[in-house]
Amino acid sequence: MTDAFRNRIDLTFTVNGEQVEATVPAGRHLIDVLRLDLGLTGSHAGCEHGVCGACTVLVDGAPVRGCLTLAAQVQAAEVWTVEGLTDTGAVADLQAAFVARNALQCGYCTPGMLVAAKALVERETVPSRAEIREHMSGNYCRCTGYEAIVDAIETAARARAGEATE
Amino acid sequence: MKASVGGYARARDLAHAFDLLAAANGMGRVIAGGQSLVAALNLGLTAGDLLVDITGITDLRGVRVEGDHLLIGALTRHVDIGSDPLVAEHAPLLARAVPLIAHDAIRNRGTIGGSLAHADPAAEFPACILALGATLIVEGPAGRREVPAADFFVDVFETALDEGDILTGIAVPCIAADERHGIEEATRRAGDYAIVGLAGVRRAAGHRIVAFGAGPRPMLCGAAMAALDAGDLDAACAAIGGELDPPSDTQGSAAYRRHLAGVLLGRLAAQLGDPS
């Protein structure tokens, strides 16, 4: 079986703008490569079957589930986690709004929330509260309830659009 | 949990994918977006699979019109189905289904071919494909064949795909001028699989109403369709529950699902422009 199945996969991809080379087990999740192999523990592994959203990271600019993405499938992809997005300031306004509105308590869900919300606030139109709830429906918070999270995202979205907040 | 995988290989093209599946000796499994398969691996529902990753076969991605059909590559992602202008123009049912499928992060990786081949009886795309009367294009080591949607979905997670086959595309008849599409579903939370749902198409030739989450596969609802064709919405809403074979589970009883189907059919009929 030449050119056939492998148990360990050689990967080259970028994480937070830096090129990474790794050899990973075939079934390893992207979230585990990020957390366990690369030490980027900002993104969290929660339910591990795609429901809770704590592991949400960006792959080629789009939010994806780190637990439903095999690392083997991100060959040559560009991955961003909350660490990189913090360093570049890409989510600084969302982070400030989350803090100002107490939109986190234990913080476990927050990195995934920020990555998911980033995609929303980057759209051209300011989302309604219903649209924010719909967009964030794949990210669970078990501490705060969602009111403050929706408030924080709404504040950031309006500020980006140059609208005055209430 | 962590996924238990026997091995992984990236297919360069379809011929390579067929070779890999043959070499896997029955343990091969095609992976595309992985949004159902990796969840199943994580839950331990399947283990030791030899994964054949077809996502690098770029020919299988994208949408184009050919004659009076819309050809959708199996690797076209949900997010792209939802934003593609050709889909919006020629098969609006599929575009309308996209926001109902899971969440943004899932739609960014999940593919239409993966959803159809996985054949979850509560999923939206299989029901839409059946309502549209689409044709599934299946390729295998023995060649290419076309399978009508009505023959494709066999049972829970079971399709007409044989060992070594790959679903490569879907041919959807383009919408006619007087045709209407609609989809309705009930969920406890946004993005969940439907407790029960209905996909509907109204054509000059008659209605096609398909229920999902209401049996072992997407189900054409013949009695409800006949009543709608006769202009009797009340009779259709009364009939549809009796045509279904829904499960009872923590989301709802079979009786509740039957009742819900009648309620949803009333809403769907409004989308389809049927007189109430």
Descriptive report:
The complex is a heterodimer of chains A (166) and B (276). Chain A contains six helices and five strands. Chain A has helices at residues 30-37, 82-88, 92-100, 110-121, 129-135, 147-160, and strands at residues 8-15, 18-25, 56-59, 62-65, 78-80. In chain A, strand 3 and strand 4 (62-65) form a beta hairpin. Chain A is elongated, with a radius of gyration of 17 Å. The relative contact order of chain A is 0.15. The model of chain A has no long low-confidence stretch (mean pLDDT 95). With 276 residues, chain B is α+β, with helices and mostly antiparallel strands. The longest helix of chain B has 18 residues, at 254-271. The mean pLDDT of chain B is 96. At the A-B interface, strand 4 and helix 5 of A face strand 1, helix 1, helix 2, strand 3 and helix 6 of B.
Key descriptive features of the protein:
heterodimer; A: 166 residues; alpha+beta; Ubiquitin-like (UB roll); DNA polymerase, domain 1; elongated; B: 276 residues; Uridine Diphospho-n-acetylenolpyruvylglucosamine Reductase, domain 2; Uridine Diphospho-n-acetylenolpyruvylglucosamine Reductase, domain 3; Enolase-like, domain 1; 3 domains; four-stranded antiparallel beta sheet; 33% helix; globular
The number of domains of chain B is 3
Number of domains of chain A: 2
Task: Please report which band the strand proportion of chain A falls in: under 5%, 5-15%, 15-25%, 25-35%, 35-45% or over 45%.
Answer: 15-25%
Quaternary form: heterodimer
Q: Please state how the strands of the largest beta sheet of chain B are arranged side by side.
A: 4-5-10-6-7
Question: How helix-rich are the residues of chain A, as a percent range?
Answer: 25-40%
Tell me the fraction of residues in β-strands of chain B, as a range: 25-35%
Described by the principal axes of the CA atoms, the overall outline of chain A is elongated
Number of helices of chain B: 12
CATH topology group of the largest domain in chain A: Ubiquitin-like (UB roll)
**Overall number of strands of chain B:** 14
Low-confidence stretches of chain A: none
Termini of chain A, distance in Å?
A: 65 Å
Keywords (chain B): FAD, Flavoprotein, Oxidoreductase
GO molecular function (chain B): FAD binding; oxidoreductase activity
InterPro entries (chain B): CO_DH_flav_C, CO_DH_flav_C_dom_sf, Diverse_Substr_Oxidored, FAD-bd_PCMH, FAD-bd_PCMH-like_sf, FAD-bd_PCMH_sub1, FAD-bd_PCMH_sub2, Mopterin_DH_FAD-bd
Protein name (chain B): Carbon monoxide dehydrogenase
